[in-house]
Amino acid sequence: MSDSSQAAAQPDRAPVRPSPSPGDPAPEPAGNIPASLRAALKLPAADGPASRAIHEVLELPMPDGTVLRADVVRPADDGAHPVLLTRCPYFGAWRPMVSEVSGVDPATPGLMAGVLGMQANVSLDRAIAEGFAVVAQACRGTDISDGDFRFYFDEATDGTATRAALAALPWCDGRVLTFGNSYLTTTQFTAALAGTEHLAAMTAWVSPSTYDDDLAMRGGVLLEGPSYEWARQQVRTGLWRDGRPDAPQETLPEPVPAFTPYLERVGIAQAAQDLAMAHRAGGHVVDWVRHPLHDAYWERLVYPVDGLADLAVPTLHVSGWYDLFQGGTLRNFTAMAAGAAARGRPGDVRLVVGPWTHLTFDGHLAGRDFPGGGTDDVGLGELSLDFWKAALGDEQAAARLPEDPVRVYVMGADRWIDLPAWPAPDAVEQAWRLGAGGVLHAPDGQAERDDASAADATADAAGMPGAGGYEVPDTHATASSAAGWTAWVHDPAEPVPTAGGQMLMGPPENAGPHDQRKIEARDDVAVFTSAPLEEPVTLLGPVRLHAWVAADAADAHLHAALTEVSPDGTSTLLTDGVLRLSARAGAERRDPLTPGEPVEVDVDMWSTGVHLSAGHRLRVDLAGSNWPRYSVADPAGGAPVTLRVLHDAAHPSAVVVSSVSLDDHPAVVRYGA
């Protein structure tokens, strides 16, 4: 009998936990943990219900014999309970942090079950008091589990096997509810799509869906910095788990200011090889670089729309306007909601979207605060508990749930509203046309009035006092413009720097609603600004750029950003998107450009929800790069490339948004209030 099978036969034996080499630090420094993160953990009280529960480590053999281990906290009685399960590859990095905040040894049985608070906004104390058992299992090859970690590919088999094993335990009543965010939704969806036996519900925060178009790439362009950084973190944690020192900084540098010049020097293909050589946990980036098209590799990772629609499992989807996986979460929700509606159970699939990034859920983002925008403000924990209870057959909990299945935060209005569906059924699609002189024409037929203010808009862009009574940076140099087109030059040696957005790269404050004025001050960014709004406008729903674009090369990247310009000149990023122009006909193919010949394209900019007050302006920024968030196009061997966007009568390029009347959507109170 192998060592792993002996361990499986002795579930009460404490597992051997990895220890760092002498002098080698833990994978993540635990000191100086921000107070906001401590609060978000919602760890149990010293004398709370969880303190009187059973805490243990559970060992479960997978079908191939690999033993996976989980921290368990469950009610101290002889009853059978529903199980809240999360499966996670990050516990090795999180354990020191949770240990420090809790004031206990990292090897304490049940310790990682406490992540329920930051992964579902429900404290462990509350879950135990409500009669749930909580199981936090480390994915294979991570933390205290055996085996080797492989991105994605073992999660379906391990997930279904874990559910079956849990359901067979005497303290489980046969019903398993899964929870977690980001990769912890990958472990949920892959297993659910493989089979739903024993699965009572899912709570999926910030979830990918297509992987090549919302994790590794968007619009055919590699998310280079985020892909490297995430893999670098897995390498560090994997080495620590193996008792080996971390890779030296000169070989695999971090954080962002250090790895950006490294990627510029060696390129992502070599960096991917370096990651794979350092530790197998970083090997997936090699695959991502080798598969730039949507091919069989990516197709097996996609959650199929039909499969999602057929997934008859109550699911609570959660995302943020500035979340890395906003597009994936909305795709998952719309597919599952369609299936639930067809089955006559629309309330089984719900959606909450807040003013959040991938990591920050308190409503306080870099660049902007959103009053009442935190998870506690909306009552997401209480909503989650009632959702779980309803899925288990509690009729009173089901009756308390909102009648409408969608709840979103409208930025600017600073209110939560409910919707019967997503996108909002009453939303009206509007095209704000790009025009000469950097003007963005409103969709209400006021082109003449906008043209009259073109000089003001251009003056604003040039750093002169504008009609709105504010000034923008005096370093701005406008892209060249003619009556029917606007051009700018993309230089791969001097890419446009990343400034916020829907991403996960660097510290949490790197993402979100950053002021774009420094970006807009560059001469390689084309800026189109509306006249000051005479009436408020509420944008709620998908955003896309529909444009005719030409380049003097066989390929180029088109980056598009939508911003809100306040009377003081602040240009706040709302949402953005990118398209590799050769991928305009689909991610599975490449159609090179004919230099100088315009092509019609759509850039998916995902979605937003924002109320623009009278006197504010709407702005569109176009660029050829966004580095290091995305790979930089270099189709001409290092030479600059000129891009043109056409905006004459024959080529009415526009940003297409969805608008609603805010008066038709009253604010809702905190759930459970």
From TrEMBL:
Is Kinase included in the keywords of this UniProt record? no
The answer on whether this UniProt entry bears the keyword NADP reads: no
Q: Where is the composition biased (Pro residues)?
A: 17-28
Q: Name one Pfam family in it.
A: PepX_C
Q: Which UniProt keywords apply?
A: Hydrolase
Q: What is this protein called?
A: Hydrolase CocE/NonD protein
UniProt cross-references to SMART domains, sorted A to Z: PepX_C
- GO MF, any single term: dipeptidyl-peptidase activity
Please list the residue ranges annotated as the Xaa-Pro dipeptidyl-peptidase C-terminal domain. Answer: 385-656
- Which parts of this chain are annotated as the region Disordered? 1-33, 491-516
What PANTHER family does UniProt report for this protein, alphabetically? COCE_NOND FAMILY, PUTATIVE (AFU_ORTHOLOGUE AFUA_7G00600)-RELATED (PTHR43056:SF10), PEPTIDASE S9 PROLYL OLIGOPEPTIDASE (PTHR43056)
InterPro entries, alphabetized? AB_hydrolase_fold, CocE/Ser_esterase, Galactose-bd-like_sf, Xaa-Pro-like_dom, Xaa-Pro_dipept_C, Xaa-Pro_dipeptidyl-ppase/CocE
